């Protein structure tokens, strides 16, 4: 097998939401930099539903992804707030609106509108939070990043050279070697590069009431009723 040596300003290991968001953000704000993302073709996408905070919408808007495109291409819906059940004697709510809106309307209106399965009409001013399918958002970010000029390699990382907590280069399964000024590890629990540094995983399981979870997608039985404009958290 013929090998080659490639160099980029930034190389990102791992795709998914974190990898592609990092790639799109870094390229959008550093258009002159050469950026490469390496994604394993053998890791499946779970594709579960996710919800955002207002800061997420600001981040996506800041890299050129408008709110209406996010809704259309990520199976999204507007998120008005969060319903907390069984945390106290009475159910309470957290609104995703700004503090000014809280003072004007309070969370009682958010509750009534959300329980009625209603939302505001999407317009040019946008919205502050939404729900989406994680796999669809990753695809949207991937397409956006590639359009900006990010190089995508569908390969496995088989080895890496890390010296003094800095990655020098990596080798792919096609025998190619990549060096970069900066490597970003978005490989999740695999921690392909991070595990070779002095960085340690710090567990807070002793302080958590729940320290594990099982995540899987489920189909709608009645989408009109189940596609609710709020998140539920049950104690």
Task: Give the helices and strands, then pairings.
Elements: E1 5-13, H1 16-29, E2 35-38, E3 49-51, H2 54-62, H3 67-73, E4 77-78, E5 81-85, E6 92-95, H4 99-115, E7 130-133, H5 134-148, E8 151-153, E9 157-163, E10 166-172, E11 177-185, H6 223-226, E12 230-234
Parallel strand pairs: 1-2, 1-11, 2-8, 5-12
Antiparallel strand pairs: 3-7, 4-7, 5-6, 9-10, 10-11
Helix pairs in contact: 1-5
What spatial form do the alpha-carbon principal axes imply?
globular
Quick check: average pLDDT? 86
Q: Based on helices, strands and strand pairing, what is the structural class?
A: alpha/beta
User: What is the beta-strand fraction?
Assistant: 25-35%
What order do the strands of the largest sheet run in, or round the barrel if closed? Answer: 8-2-1-11-10-9
**Extended strand count:** 12
Tell me the name of the CATH class. Answer: Alpha Beta
CATH topology: FAD/NAD(P)-binding domain
Low-confidence stretches: none
CATH superfamily: FAD/NAD(P)-binding domain
CATH architecture: 3-Layer(bba) Sandwich
The main sheet comes to: 6 strands, mixed
> If you compute it from the alpha carbons, what radius of gyration comes out, rounded to the nearest whole angstrom?
21 Å
Helix content: 25-40%
Number of domains: 1
Distance between the termini: 56 Å
Number of helices: 6
Could you state the order of secondary-structure elements as H and E? EHEEHHEEEHEHEEEEHE
What this model shows, in words?
This protein is an alpha/beta fold. The protein has a single domain (5-197, 220-234), classed as 3-Layer(bba) Sandwich (FAD/NAD(P)-binding domain). It has six helices and twelve strands. The chain has helices at residues 16-29, 54-62, 67-73, 99-115, 134-148, 223-226, and strands at residues 5-13, 35-38, 49-51, 77-78, 81-85, 92-95, 130-133, 151-153, 157-163, 166-172, 177-185, 230-234. The strands form three sheets. The protein has a six-stranded mixed beta sheet, covered by helices on one side. A hairpin with a 4-residue loop joins β10 and β11 (177-185). α1 runs parallel beside α5. The radius of gyration is 21 Å and the shape is globular. The model has no long low-confidence stretch (mean pLDDT 86).
């Amino acid at each position: 097998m013929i090998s080659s040596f490639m160099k980029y300003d930034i190389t990102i290991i791992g795709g998914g939401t974190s990898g592609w968001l990092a790639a799109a953000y870094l390229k959008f704000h550093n258009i002159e930099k050469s950026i490469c993302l390496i994604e394993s073709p053998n890791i499946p996408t779970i594709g579960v539903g996710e919800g955002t905070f207002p800061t997420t919408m600001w981040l996506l808007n800041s890299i050129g992804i408008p709110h209406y495109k996010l809704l259309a291409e990520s199976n999204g819906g507007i998120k008005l707030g969060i319903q907390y059940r069984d945390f106290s004697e009475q159910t309470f709510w957290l609104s995703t609106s700004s503090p000014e809106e809280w003072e004007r309307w309070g969370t009682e209106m958010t509750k009534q509108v959300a329980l009625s399965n209603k939302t505001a009409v999407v317009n040019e001013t946008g919205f502050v939070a939404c729900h989406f399918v994680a796999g669809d958002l990753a695809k949207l970010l991937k397409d956006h990043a590639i359009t900006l000029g990010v190089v995508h390699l569908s390969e496995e990382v088989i080895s890496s050279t890390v010296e003094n907590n800095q990655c020098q280069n990596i080798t792919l399964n096609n025998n190619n070697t990549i060096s970069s000024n900066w490597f970003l590890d978005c490989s999740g629990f695999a921690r392909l590069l991070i595990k070779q540094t002095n960085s340690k995983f710090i567990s807070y399981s002793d302080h958590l009431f729940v320290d594990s979870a099982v995540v899987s997608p489920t189909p709608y039985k009645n989408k009109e009723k189940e596609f609710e404009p709020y998140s539920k958290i049950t104690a």
